[in-house]
Write a structure and sequence with these properties.
Length: 104
C-alpha cells in the first residue's frame, strides 16, 4: 500500500506541534487537508499514486495562536512517492528555522 504521514515537532519548545494545518497536494492538483494530532502527527489514509506530492504546513496561524512570531508563514515540502511504500515526511520547526527529512 502506498501511504503518507507526517510528524511535526516544535524544536524550540521541545514538544509536538499539535493542531497545525497540513495540506497534501497530489500530482493531479487535488488536495487533502488535515491537522496534526496531540502528538504532532497526521496520517492521510488514502492510497497514493506515484509521482511528486507536496505537503504545505500552515505555520503562520499556528504560531500566531500562541502569540509567537515566525519568519515562515507556511512551509512547502515536495517529495516523490514510490508505489508500494509508506512515506513519512518529518518536520522539525522553530519560529525562524526548519528542517525536514524522510522518516519511517
Amino acid at each position: 500500500m502506498t501511504t503518507v504521514s507526517t510528524h511535526v515537532l516544535d524544536a524550540a519548545l521541545g514538544r509536538p506541534a499539535a493542531g497545525l494545518t497540513v495540506t497534501l497536494t497530489l500530482p493531479d492538483g487535488s488536495s487533502k487537508t488535515g491537522k496534526t494530532d496531540a502528538d504532532g502527527r497526521a496520517r492521510l489514509p488514502d492510497e497514493l499514486t506515484p509521482g511528486v506530492h507536496t505537503f504545505t504546513f500552515v505555520t503562520g496561524p499556528w504560531f500566531a495562536a500562541q502569540d509567537r512570531d515566525t519568519f515562515y508563514p507556511e512551509i512547502t515540502v515536495s517529495f516523490t512517492v514510490t508505489a508500494g511504500e509508506h512515506h513519512h515526511v518529518a518536520l522539525l520547526l522553530s519560529p525562524f528555522a526548519y528542517t525536514t527529512y524522510r522518516g519511517s
